[in-house]
């Protein structure tokens, strides 16, 4: 991000969190979102969540292609640039969330919004939503899901580690429930942004 100043009226920073406690390890960290960061692109967003590159790029591309209504704009190229400033864990989920907010900011038509949610299972099978980098390293399995906002349909999943079918279903259900908090944050962030315009 080139020399962005806080005095620029176009910069909006929004914060969100899930304050409800559903048990240890089952809450999301704080969100922060800034839009219109860059002057030249049609849309830009920075999405922070909490304090293998080509594979991640492919997963993000496939998720975006699943929801973007490309037929409305034939022969149009959409480029999404994601710059990782820090990795506090759940990086792929954070990148998916940033990509969605950038597409919204650019006004790209989509079938639905999408979000990423990462789950981790520790050695005794305890599920953790939105794990930190340390928790991911110590986890027995890490699962990331991309879900749409309309039907909570699974758009993409990637896994690392060992887990049972029952644990996979448990993680997916937890990710679907957590996605509602992310989508609520999107709505609140956009409402605050456009109510000030």
Automatic annotation (TrEMBL):
Domain Exoribonuclease phosphorolytic: start-end pairs: 54-109, 113-177
Disordered: region residues: 1-23
InterPro entries reported for this sequence: ExoRNase_PH_dom1 (IPR001247), ExoRNase_PH_dom2 (IPR015847), ExoRNase_PH_dom2_sf (IPR036345), PNPase/RNase_PH_dom_sf (IPR027408), Ribosomal_Su5_D2-typ_SF (IPR020568), RNase_PH (IPR050080)
Pfam families per record: RNase_PH, RNase_PH_C
Keywords: Exosome, Nucleus, rRNA processing
CDD domains found in the cross-reference section: RNase_PH_RRP46
SUPFAM superfamilies per record: Ribonuclease PH domain 2-like, Ribosomal protein S5 domain 2-like
One GO location term (cellular component): cytoplasmic exosome (RNase complex)
MF GO annotations: RNA binding
Domain of life: Eukaryota
Location(s), subcellular: Nucleus
Predominant location category: nucleus
Gene Ontology process terms (BP): nuclear mRNA surveillance; poly(A)-dependent snoRNA 3'-end processing; rRNA catabolic process; rRNA processing; U4 snRNA 3'-end processing
Family: Belongs to the RNase PH family.
PANTHER family attached to this UniProt entry: EXOSOME COMPLEX COMPONENT, EXOSOME COMPLEX COMPONENT RRP46
Protein name: Exosome component 5
Organism encoding this protein: Phyllostomus discolor
């Amino acid at each position: 991000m080139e020399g962005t100043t806080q005095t620029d009226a176009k910069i909006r920073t929004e914060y969100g969190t899930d304050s409800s406690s559903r048990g240890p390890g089952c809450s999301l960290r704080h969100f922060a979102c800034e839009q219109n960061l860059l002057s030249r692109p049609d849309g830009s967003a920075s999405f922070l969540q909490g304090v293998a590159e080509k594979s991640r790029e492919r997963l993000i591309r496939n998720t975006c292609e699943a929801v973007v209504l490309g037929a409305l704009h034939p022969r149009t190229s959409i480029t999404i640039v994601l710059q990782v400033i820090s990795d506090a864990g759940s990086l792929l989920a954070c990148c998916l969330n940033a990509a969605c907010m950038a597409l919204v900011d650019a006004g790209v038509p989509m079938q639905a919004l999408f979000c990423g949610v990462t789950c981790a299972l520790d050695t005794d099978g305890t599920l953790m939503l939105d794990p930190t980098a340390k928790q991911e390293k110590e986890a027995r399995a890490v699962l990331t899901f991309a879900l749409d906002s309309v039907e909570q349909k699974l758009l993409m999943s990637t896994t690392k580690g060992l887990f049972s079918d029952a644990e996979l279903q448990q993680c997916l259900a937890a990710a679907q429930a957590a996605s509602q908090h992310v989508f609520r944050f999107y709505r609140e962030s956009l409402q605050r942004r456009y109510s000030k315009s």
